[in-house]
Automatic annotation (TrEMBL):
TM stretches of this protein: 27-51, 57-80, 92-112, 132-152
One biological process term in Gene Ontology: myelination
Keywords of the record: Membrane, Transmembrane, Transmembrane helix
Gene name, Swiss-Prot/TrEMBL: Mall
Cellular component, GO annotation: membrane
Biological source species: Ceuthmochares aereus
GO molecular function, one term: structural constituent of myelin sheath
Primary location class: membrane
Domain MARVEL: start-end pairs: 21-153
Protein name (database record): MALL protein
Location within or outside the cell: Membrane
A Pfam family it matches: MARVEL
Length: 153
């Protein structure tokens, strides 16, 4: 009597590697997160940084998040995760925590923008601060989308 057992298909979704990272949600958000985050710190650095405590936090959050996201992207591209479930947890926790940090940075940057409106500095600094605030909120939104997309995947 021969038993015919069929192999059970894996219900666990695989993590992308290589160029499939750019085609798979939510991992496709990593590159826009890096690009928008880079714009935040470039724009803040281009201003006179009138409020070092506020904008210093914005620079710290945007630069460190950009670098860590770049490392995460590289690890996905080269397949360092080896399809481990722990990477999904790490990714979700990182993007959730970064979304919270970026929200605080975006609010502080918006405050610096509002205060810079009434200074007699060049109007260019106000416009740069406005753009930095916009990109900070866009980046926050991208990190939130990424964190919840992993969670609901």
């Amino acid at each position: 009597m021969a038993s015919t057992s069929s192999p059970v298909a894996s219900t666990q979704p695989t993590l992308p590697s290589g160029l499939a990272v750019f085609k798979t949600m939510p991992y496709a958000f990593i590159l826009p997160e890096i690009a928008c985050g880079t714009w935040v710190w470039i724009l803040v650095a281009a201003t006179s940084v009138s409020y070092p405590l506020l904008q210093g936090w914005v620079m710290y959050v945007s630069l460190s998040s950009c670098l860590i996201s770049l490392l995460l992207l590289i690890s996905y591209l080269f397949g360092f995760h080896k399809n481990s479930e722990n990477w999904k947890v790490l990714d979700s926790l990182y993007h959730g925590a970064t979304a919270i940090l970026y929200m605080s940075a975006a609010v502080l940057q918006a405050n610096a923008t509002i205060v810079s409106e009434f200074h007699h500095n060049s109007p260019l600094y106000y416009e740069l601060n406005c753009a930095a605030s916009l990109f900070a909120f866009i980046t926050t939104f991208l990190y939130i989308l990424h964190a919840f997309s992993i969670y609901y995947q």
